[in-house]
Structures are given as C-alpha cells and as structure tokens.
Amino acid sequence: METILQHAQGLVYSLLVLMPSVYQKASLNALLGLFLDAQGHALPEQTQVKSASSLSRFLNRYNWSTREVIRTTRRHVLGQILSHLPHPSTPVRILIDLSTLEKTGKFWHLSTPMPDSDKPDPWVRILNGKRGLHLVVLYLVVGQWRVPWSLRVWRGKGYASPAQLACKLLANVPPSLCGGRVVLVQADTEFGTVEFLNAVHRRHWRPIVGMRANRTLQDGRALKDLYRHARRGLQVYLKGLDYALTLSWFWLKRSDGKRELRFVASSYPYSGAYLVLLGRKRWAIEGFFKTAKHQFGLHCFGQGTKLGVYRWLVLCVIAYVLAHWIDQWAWPPVLNWKETCRLTLETLFPSIIWFQLLRQIRLSEHIAAQFGFEIVLQTLSG
Q1: Is 86 exposed, middle or buried (0-12, 13-18, 19+ CB in 10 A)?
Q2: What is the pLDDT of residue 118?
Q3: Which residues pair with 253 in a beta bridge?
Q4: CATH code given to domain 85-294
Q5: Residue 209 class from Cβ within 10 Å (0-12 exposed, 13-18 middle, 19+ buried)?
C-alpha cells in the first residue's frame, strides 16, 4: 500500500509530465509554490522563481490541458482515499455550498455575450449583496480526508441557478467511493429546491438541507407556522414533493448578536436533535473556504481570460489537497496551515525553497560584506 507521501509525490510527478515543455514545468512548480507560501495574497509578482509575465502566459496563453490536469488529480485523489478508507460504518459526507470571491472593478474580459444583446454578461456578478465571482463547490469528507472535488461558476440570471449547478456536481461523485456506504448530502437553504432534493433522492442518498422559513407545505402552511405548534423531528410533506421529509429547527446566533430561526430537513427519519447536529456539520465547508482564501489566495485571481481564472482556481485547489495530504502524513501533527505549507514545500517542492534561499543570499551579500564576511557556495563534492 502506498503511503500518503508517495501519493502526493506521484500526483506532483504526474502533473509535471502533462506539461509540454520544461519552461511550463517550471511555471507549474512556481505557481504551486506561490499558493503554498500561505500568505493569503498569492500574487504572481511575489514569486521568487519565475517572472509575473511568464506565469501570466502559463495561465492565459500556453496550450496545456486543464481538463487532463483535473482528471489526473481526481484519479490520484480517489486512489489515495480508496487505499486509506475508514471503517465501512463511516458515512461519506458530500458538502455543497456557494462561496463568493469578492472583487471590485468591471472585469469586462470575464464576459459572455448575451443572446440578442450587445451587452456582455460578466462572471463577476452581485448575489446576496456580495459582488464577485460566485463558486458552487462540492466538498467530500470521508473519514479524515477532506477534498474539494469539483466546482462550477455561477454566471448570473439567465443561466443555471446555484441549485442546478449543484445537481450537475452530484453527477461527478465517483460511484466507487459511495458503494456500500451511507451518503449524506449537506447543503444550505440556497439548495433546498425540489429539483435538488429529487436529484439526491434518486441516488438513494440522504439529504440534510436547510429550508427557508416561508417554505410551503402541501396543506398550505409555512414551515415557520410549525414552530411552537409541533415537535422537532416530525414528518412533513413539502409542496412539490411526493415523499415525506423529517423536519427540525434551531436558533442560530448571527454576527450582529441577534438570533435567527433556522430549519433543516432530511428524507431519512432522524431524531430532531440529531438532525440539527448533522445540519451544523455543514459548516466544515466554510472552514475550507476560509483556508483557501486567507491561506492559499483563492480569491487573488487577476487573469486576463476566463481560462486563466479557471486554471488559477484549479491549481489553488490542488495546492490545498497536497498540503492536506502532507498534514495527514506528518507526525506529530502540524496543526497549523502555515507550518503545513512550509513542510509541503520542503517535501514536495525543495527546488522552490532552494531558489528562495539563493535569492535571499544574493540580496544579503552586501550586509555580509559590511561585517567582513563573504558568502561562498560550492558543491559537496568540491
């Protein structure tokens, strides 16, 4: 059985093999090293290995297969998980949520022509009061393994809704991972649509989905009418569904100190208290979003093409996966993303550390000379 480190090394090697030239291999190394710098502001001009212009050409112009990079990564991720599976009683948790990479500016270059109109339809839109690039992400939790498996960009009104994008993401979950296990699909109220619930129900999975308080029952009542008049864990029939859902609710304390009544539903007859507990576990994906943005710089895309932006997002997620693997491999546990990223660089990308060291030496030669020293590098054989 391959170790976690061997899986990580195999993934890096396979990705480098996909690059058509030695220059593109170096650019891929530099970009992954940039994401693993864990500063939260992964700007191409900050890399010490390649120029910002060369990284821009790598992302926006060079002809390497983004699709093959995704397929290769998924193949290695699936192989790694299947070789380190938890106990069969451990459920597979599929977490789906919408995250906004907030941006200012017009970003007309990230546009799709609208039918029968000359006005562009930019990727950067306003949703729920936030302006930016809106991503629907499917996140897998299998025992100790946490993997952002796939993502889609919400393109605005007139295109697929977030819930419809989520239905497409469900089709990408590998059957070999779910066979013989309970599958929990956890999502926020944005995805509590009839279409999404039916997509989960058809696969015989168990949805644990937030519900809006004004959601209508078949008898005409709203969910908010059940609070104070029913017990948590009751069976209800929503309008548009021909099967029962188990319903529960809880009070959520918001950032402004106020409380908000939240509802959660599932097609499986969980108890009311346990259903709330499962519903709260959905917040694990929020931890991923926070880490990907503030540690790996997911939101720092600034490319001139949609292809460049998409490649940026994909490679950032790959860097996160590599760091997660190294964190699981390390003993004792690192328990700190910055230290984990440093260990990932030292283990998988030692050339990046070496180039950074050489650059620091060159920049500091005059300081050494002030104290009467000269820095000399020579090979061990010399």
Answers
A1: middle
A2: 53
A3: 259
A4: 3.90.350.10
A5: buried
